[in-house]
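Support reply, case 0932

Customer input (verbatim):
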Amino acid sequence: MTIPVPSPVSATVPDVPAPKLGGWKAILVYRWWAVGAVVIVAAAGIGWAFWSPDPDKGFVQGNGRVEATEVDVATKLAGRIQEIWVDEGNFVVLGQPLAQMQTTVLNAQRDEAQALCRQAVTAVASAEALEAARASEVVAAEAVVVQRESDVDLARRRFKRTESLTGEGALSRQDFEDDQARWRGMEAALASARAQVSAAAAAVRAAHAVWVGARSGIAAAEATVTRIEADIHDSQLTAPRAGRIQYRIGQPGEVLAAGGKVLNLVDLGDVYLTFFLPEMAAGKVSIGTEVRVVLDAVPDEVIPATVSFVASVAQFTPKTVETASEREKLMFRVKAQFGGELLARHRTTIKTGTPGVAWVRLDARAAWPARLGIKASE
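Our regenerated output:
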């Protein structure tokens, strides 16, 4: 007889159907899964920020505008504008004639000064002749002195002889007195001749002074002619530097006072970007620091520049600086100078007032980011 053996119990656990969630319970579960995903993504982003390198570390940026040196072409003297030979937008070179002021009055003054100069030359010639004449009078007076000295000597000797003979009784008292009077007369004539020599010498000195004055008159007249000719030369307004005419301030026919502006010139060889940096960054910037500029008008081009000026006084300063947050408000003006070769290539497209961003490298060891790289053509 066979005894039936029961079959072993199966180890497989039958599948238990998952409970079905419906309504608000399913929505709650799904929201928790969404929140978890967001947290995971945020944590990953924060972790990436902490361990990934910062491409802008060692750099600072500042907003600014393109500026250029402006020069006003003005008249030195008051007068009327006769002609203007350039228009707004024209490029000019150093020394190029730009405008002409009327010179009718100056020409008349120059002619007058030249006439005075010729008159002074004639006065010098007259003074020289007068001095020569006075010198001749001195010579003649000196000759008279010599003659009078001879007469005095002869009269003195005759008087001595007469005096001796009179004492011996050979001559009368009358002869003695006559010779004595003749001697004294000769001495008086000698004194007069010597006085004439002194007078003639004084006349020579006076004539020489007249000659010196006439010579000074020539120098003064020549200086006046030179001054008026300089004013005539300055009446032609020329370009003080190469650049582009920005404004025609005056027009032909207008009467301007001394220093009146006629034209405004922009020097396209001295173009720079003025921007501002906070105190902490400005303190690390020095003259010659490398700068990369990106203009709003051409955002895809990076323009090289160099720091040429850093203000020593803050432009935006609170009335009282007491806290660290207030000190952060201090902003310093900085100028980034563009290179001359770059300006020469793009002088027709340079526009002052164009806004842009300047990137300054504070750490010399930091490499420029790829987006701030300089193209070979630049």
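We compared this against your earlier run and they match. Two observations from our side: The first helix runs from residue 24 to 51. The radius of gyration is 53 Å. Please reopen the case if you see a mismatch on your end.
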